[in-house]
Write a structure and sequence with these properties.
Order of helices and strands: EHEEHEEHEEEEHHEHHH
CATH topology of the largest domain: Spore Coat Polysaccharide Biosynthesis Protein SpsA, Chain A
CATH architecture of the largest domain: Alpha-Beta Complex
Largest sheet: 10 strands, mixed
Shape: globular
Number of helices: 8
Strand content: 15-25%
Number of strands: 10
Structural class: alpha/beta
Length: about 300
């Protein structure tokens, strides 16, 4: 019998997508070895009423404010009883054998702390979104997502193995690793938090793996939407914050030089070219936050709407 697995998902103003996930989970995993924890993360309207049909079978937790990706998941983690915790986006669809295979892989490899399955796009299930990440270049804060936008012909099917980072849309952590590494850092709010978590888990003595023989489908669009000021702010702010928290001193100094001499001029050029002149102010606001705040500061530096 499979040990208890806690499935944690976060809803923010997307009850329809969340209900579709709950239906997918119930279709594949109706047994007693699964507990489902749904975190309503500050939805503008209290969405509990949308989930009435499921409340006798799931744990429903509501935060009155939006805690961000890490904060919402951490709220669910605090409620979890499972030996393994599977954090998945609410806009995903699970597949047969997914959870059992991830658990089996982690049970057979004690040094694995966190693992992701292969992720394909929901809109075109033959297209890969994630088949692993390369290691981080701490001098530039760049790495690559393996397999993204490739047609899935089984080219990445192999034994489960180490990878640079898990993918935040679907990641299973064992409780032992969680206890030693701690929960995700909530001051990222959006972007880079799962990468920072992976570095925490590595420092706690565990490895980061991918299980490429099972797949989850993610409803993220194949085309990248137009950037918002919020996304631009947190992508730049957190890229710097990630390096401050995880790179060696000499790596940090080289990154700072790279960011100021390469990233800032390139971004400004692109903002002007694309007619997003307001993003220039957002970029410097992201830099200023890192100059003023510690790496553990809870000040987001951005007013959420």
């Amino acid at each position: 019998m499979m040990p208890l697995v806690s499935i944690i998902t976060v809803n923010f103003n997307q009850p329809k997508a969340t209900i579709e996930l709950l239906k997918s989970l119930e279709a594949h995993y109706p047994g007693p070895d699964i507990e489902i924890i749904l975190v309503d993360n500050g939805s503008h309207m209290n969405d509990k009423g949308h989930f009435t049909d499921y409340l006798d079978r799931i744990s429903y937790v509501r935060s009155e404010v939006n805690l961000g990706f890490a904060g919402g998941n951490n709220l669910g983690i605090q409620q979890a009883r499972g030996e393994f915790l599977f954090l998945i986006n609410n806009d995903t669809e699970v597949t047969e054998g997914l959870i059992e295979t991830l658990v089996k892989t982690m049970q057979e490899n004690a040094h694995v702390g966190i693992i992701s399955p292969k992720i394909n796009y929901f809109d075109d299930k033959s297209v890969i979104q994630y088949a692993g990440f390369t290691s981080m270049n701490y001098l530039t804060c760049r790495n690559k997502c393996v397999g993204q936008f490739e047609t899935d012909t089984g080219q990445y099917h192999a034994s489960p193995h180490m990878t640079g980072y898990v993918h935040g849309a679907a990641m299973m952590i064992k409780k032992e690793a969680l206890k030693k590494a701690g929960m995700m850092s909530e001051n990222f709010f959006l972007y880079y938090e799962e990468m920072d978590w992976c570095d925490q888990i590595r420092r706690a003595g565990f490895e980061i793996w991918i299980e490429p023989n099972v797949t989850i489908y993610h409803k993220e669009s194949l085309s990248v939407g137009k950037n918002s000021a919020l996304k631009e702010y947190f992508m730049n702010r957190n890229r710097i914050l990630f390096i401050r928290r995880n790179a060696l001193p000499y790596q940090r100094y080289i990154f700072y030089l790279f960011f100021i001499t390469v990233v800032v001029p390139r971004n400004i050029f692109n903002y002007l070219k694309d007619g997003n002149i307001g993003f220039i102010k957002v970029l410097f606001k992201a830099i200023k936050w890192n100059l003023k705040n510690s790496i553990t500061s809870s000040d987001l530096g951005y007013t959420l709407k």
